[in-house]
Amino acid sequence: MFRHAHTVPLLMSLALGGCAMAGGHRSADTPQTRGHATAQRACAACHAVEPGGAASPRERAVPFASLEMRHTVGLDGRLADLTRRGHYGMPPIALDAGELTDLQAYIESLHRD
Ligand code: HEC
Fold first, then answer.
1. Phi/psi class of residue 60: alpha, beta or left (left: φ > 0; alpha: ψ in -120 to 50)?
2. What pLDDT is attached to residue 3?
3. Whose alpha carbon is nearest atom 18 of ligand 1?
4. Ligand 1: distance of its center to the CA of 47 in Å?
5. Cα 7 to chain center, whole Å?
6. Which of 20, 84, 96, 98 has the fewest CB within 10 Å, making it most exposed?
7. 3-state helix, strand, coil in the chain (%, to 5)
8. Is CATH 1.10.3720.10 what the domain over 30-109 is classified as, yes or no?
9. Residue having the nearest C-alpha atom to atom 34 of ligand 1
10. How far apart are the CA of 69 and the centre of ligand 1, in A?
11. In Å, what is the CA distance from 83 to each residue of 39, 46, 76, 113?
């Protein structure tokens, strides 16, 4: 359905990867950094996705660093369900299992102190 949407970031990351390798160090590619990128791409229009207590762009969308988010992701495990069916005016988002795992890893990393 959203196949084309995946092609562009992939090509971009290949291009960036090439540059980074020529230039020396590249930032660590971990589940958290990948999940962070997915959150910025797919969720940040409505949710505050960065660490800290910033308010979400869209009223009522829970900030990813909030306790409520932690419960939804970690305890209820509803992330896959929410993205597949869509929620609150957001169309279903095509995220594959790997992207969901990364997203969850990123959200959980916000709550580890
Ligand atoms: C079009 C805006 C929009 C986008 C894009 C969006 N959300 Fe939401 N989301 C909302 C709103 C609004 C709420 C809160 C609704 C309420 O509780 O009244 C919400 C609630 C949630 C909740 C809590 C749900 C619950 O029942 O407790 C989770 C988890 C969540 N969003 C995850 C995500 C993730 C992950 C993404 C990106 C893949 C995302 N959202 C993208 C608008 C959005």
1. left
2. 53
3. 60
4. 7
5. 17
6. 96
7. 55, 0, 45
8. no
9. 43
10. 9
11. 12, 14, 14, 27
Query: How far does residue 94's CA lie from ligand 1's centre (Å)?
Result: 15
The partner residues of 90 in beta bridges, in order of sequence, read 87
User: Could you tell me the pTM of the whole model?
Assistant: 0.79
Q: Which residues pair with 87 in a beta bridge?
A: 90
- Summarised one tens digit per residue, pLDDT across range 41-94 is 999 999 999 998 799 999 999 999 999 998 888 888 889 888 889 998 888 988
Asked whether the predicted pLDDT for residue 4 surpasses 60, the reply is no
Residue nearest to atom 13 of ligand 1 (CA): 61
Total count of residues recorded for the chain = 113
Nearest protein CA to atom 25 of ligand 1, as residue = 72
Quote the mean pLDDT of the chain: 81
Structure tokens at 69: 């988010």
**Confidence at 113, pLDDT banded by 50, 70, 90:** low
**Whether the CB of 48 sits within 6 Å of ligand 1:** no
